[in-house]
Design a protein that fits this description.
By secondary structure, this protein is of the alpha+beta class. Helices cover 14% and strands 31% of the residues. The chain contains two helices and five strands. It has helices at 46-56, 69-73; strands at residues 2-10, 15-21, 76-83, 90-95, 103-106. Strands 2-1-3-4-5 form a five-stranded antiparallel β-sheet. It is globular and about 45 Å long. 10% of the residues are buried. The mean pLDDT is 87.
């Protein structure tokens, strides 16, 4: 399985809030960007990204997500695009507000 991208979608605003594309060949390294020159990269979302991928691959909902007002108000849907040997990608998705259910779609694009 190859990770293509992680999409964070808001049902409230009907738009993609953030999209992370992964290298499809080789190794992906998650680095945080400095907010300002010389500052540390703590609190920029590196761990949250890894926890989101784990959640989408069947893990439990991260404790950071439970009851987080910004996530629940925006009705966030996390989507992970993955490829296998098939040429058509799979989309794995889970809602933050209903973490007990997951969705799988095999299609050329998610809309």
């Amino acid at each position: 399985m190859i990770l293509n991208r992680l999409i964070i979608y808001s049902f409230q605003t009907k738009q993609i809030l953030k999209e992370y594309k992964f290298n499809t060949v080789g190794l992906n390294i998650i680095l945080g960007e400095e907010k300002e020159t010389g500052q540390e990269t703590n609190g920029v979302g590196k761990t949250t990204m890894v926890e989101s991928i784990n959640f989408l691959l069947g893990g439990s909902c991260p404790t950071d997500f439970n009851g987080k007002k910004t996530l629940t108000e925006k009705d966030v849907l996390l989507i992970l695009e993955v490829r296998t040997n098939d040429s058509i990608p799979y989309y794995l998705a889970r809602l933050i507000n209903f973490p007990q259910k997951g969705y799988i779609l095999q299609a050329n694009e998610v809309s």
